[in-house]
Automatic annotation (TrEMBL), chains A, B:
Record keywords: DNA-binding, Transcription, Transcription regulation
Species per Swiss-Prot/TrEMBL record: Microbacterium ginsengiterrae
Family matches, as PANTHER family: HTH-TYPE TRANSCRIPTIONAL REGULATOR BETI (PTHR30055:SF234), HTH-TYPE TRANSCRIPTIONAL REGULATOR RUTR (PTHR30055)
Domain named HTH tetR-type: residues: 15-75
Protein name: AcrR family transcriptional regulator
Length: 201, 201
């Protein structure tokens, strides 16, 4: 990630729309922490006046809310799509896992920000509650797969959910996107390790 | 805290030895960040004068160094012990994974601190380099296991190392120790998912 302080302010620079402002805000939140990032510093980094910034986003809280929605909305959509599929719970689980890795690769900064949230405000607490609800639904899916006999029953499904998403979420620590094919390969690797394990027998 | 009248009640409080000071310092580093934790705040939390604190640790940096050594030293000892074992690379890998989870459970706060390190100082950069060297040795072990045919060859060993330790390291996010048996169960679950996978077939 580039150091946001390196780019000189380009006041009135055209082409800054909502999405670009959001991207840069999230870069700063990740680099120096949400609480430590002031609206003034963000406006300066964007080369915008504070009032021009407020034209796009009503507050720093709105930037955080929209960024967390990008991450959570993507993950929830993948889970809902998987849950709605025909076939075995094992197939729904696989579909969800593949989709979750692709969302993470595609919305890397937003998911990184989500994983840093510790519950310091109402917005952060709501995001944590959505993560917990997501985990509950994955655990329920794992439980159905255990009941149908396609997923092993000797690992507690809530522990398995945590280990699976521990593996998935850790990808934000080292993944640097180079293309859709790379993300698909990674998703397949996660699925292989999670479902079949590293052992050959 | 330059005014000694601030802490007279607990000055010279007995029972605070090096280990207890380290534990409380690490708690504070985790809760509010290493950079944001001042020696004055730490001394106040301990009910010690700064000079009494400096009697045990020469600096805040020394506290960080010793804490990171606890985490890294534990993990490196487990890996060295695994590497020195007879038997297959697959068995050495299993031994290392089980041991790493037990070290994490036993030194939870120290490993948590290690995983927060981002390279903001020489001490942090040295810790990151020791983590990279650890990962290289695990990757080498995986490569030997692939060559002997006990670990699947269709996942890149450095990706596999990252996914394995993504799973292991994520345990610090939710694990709350209640006893050695619980840690052993968790280590067995990690080994089961990592080597055999969640699928029944």
């Amino acid at each position: 990630m580039s150091d946001p302080s390196q780019t000189p302010a380009r006041r009135g620079r055209p082409g800054y729309d909502r999405e670009r402002i959001l991207e840069i805000a999230v870069e700063m939140f990740i680099a120096q922490g949400y609480d430590a990032t002031s609206v003034s510093a963000l406006a300066a980094r964007l080369g915008l006046s504070k009032s021009a910034l407020y034209h796009h986003f009503a507050s720093k809280e709105e930037l955080l809310q929209v960024a967390l929605d990008e991450a959570l909305g993507g993950l929830e959509a993948v889970l809902a799509e998987a849950e709605a599929r025909d076939g075995s719970a094992r197939e729904r689980l696989e579909h969800m896992l593949l989709g979750a890795v692709l969302v993470l690769a595609d919305r890397l900064a937003y998911v990184t920000l989500l994983l840093r949230v510790r519950g310091n405000s109402d917005i952060e607490r709501a995001a944590l509650e959505r993560r917990r609800e997501f985990d509950r639904r994955v655990t329920a899916l794992l439980r159905v797969a255990q009941a149908e006999g396609t997923v092993r029953s000797d690992v507690d499904p809530s522990v398995a959910t945590r280990l699976l998403f521990g593996m998935v979420n850790s990808i934000v620590e080292w993944y640097r996107p180079t293309g859709a094919e790379q993300a698909k390969d990674l998703a397949r690797d996660v699925l292989t390790v999670a479902l079949d394990g590293l052992a050959t027998s």
